[in-house]
Design brief:
By secondary structure, the chain is mostly helical. 73% of the residues lie in helices and 0% in strands. Helix 3 runs antiparallel to helix 4.
């Protein structure tokens, strides 16, 4: 490896790993086998951003970049393209998607940028307005993406209060299904109504410009912290949580909330 540029050295490293003299494990990898690793590395980048740790973020971005270059190496071996072609394609795409920067288009707001972006994408791909959203996206993120696209075309609630009204409507419909006896309950209808509630709540978050994934993760952390405090309180009294009554558990929970809430 004689190139001093870090990007080129990383390309050479990936090629070496895939060579006959390289790593047996890396030589066995396929595009299909790498899918899970790409997703995992992307989530680790998100975790590093959430933690606010610059060194961890740099490391995780490196791991993700390695996956990109490694996948491109496999594609190059197939004679499809190399990572430089990937760079050329994304450069051309970003220039085309930002005519207000690289062209003569004028915009007055970020919302106009989003609307133009969706129109350009639609013309590029020649597909429906909701096309281009990956099927494998997590459901919560997919809700945001498809409703952002619909909103960019003017199909949206006017304000957060309108979406909250929709949430209440969907919760009432869910309650009607839940209120039926178990023998009469339609499980498919139950899933449908619960999905509608979750879909509506995600749109409340979108209208409030709150990341619903981050909000839910924060709620998960809060619950875990309180539950750990519950366990500590029970242990200090010589209790086991699975041996407590519901009243005792509720009392422990309230104490834990008082301890952990700011």
């Amino acid at each position: 490896m004689g190139n001093d540029h870090p990007f080129d050295r990383l390309r050479e490293l990936c090629a070496r790993l895939r060579s006959p003299e390289g790593c047996p494990w890396d030589r066995e990898q396929t595009l299909e086998s790498l899918r899970a690793y790409i997703v995992e590395e992307a989530y680790e980048v998100v975790d590093a951003i959430t933690a606010g740790e610059p060194e961890a973020l740099a490391e995780e971005l490196g791991d993700l970049l390695f996956q990109v270059i490694f996948v491109a190496q496999l594609a190059e071996e197939q004679g499809w393209f190399d990572v430089l072609k990937v760079c050329e394609l994304i450069h051309a795409k970003m220039v085309a998607r930002h005519p207000h920067v690289f062209g003569d288009v004028r915009v007055a707001s970020a919302q106009e940028v989003v609307q133009n972006w969706e129109k350009i994408k639609k013309n590029e791909k020649k597909r429906g307005a909701l096309g281009g959203v990956p099927e494998s996206l997590p459901a919560l993120l997919k809700t945001l993406r498809i409703t952002e696209k619909a909103a960019a075309l003017g199909f949206d609630w006017e304000k957060p209060e309108d979406v909250l009204a929709k949430v209440r409507e969907e919760v009432e419909e869910l309650a009607q299904v839940v209120g039926r006896s178990k023998d009469e309950r339609d499980e498919a209808k139950l899933r449908e109504e619960l999905g509608d509630v979750l879909f509506s709540i995600a749109n409340v978050a979108r209208h409030l410009r709150v990341d619903p994934e981050a909000a839910l993760q924060a709620a998960n952390r809060k619950f875990a912290q309180r539950f750990a405090a519950m366990e500590a309180l029970a242990s200090a009294r010589g209790w086991s949580l699975d041996g407590c009554t519901m009243e005792q558990l509720e009392a422990l929970w309230q104490q834990a909330k008082a301890q952990t809430d700011p």
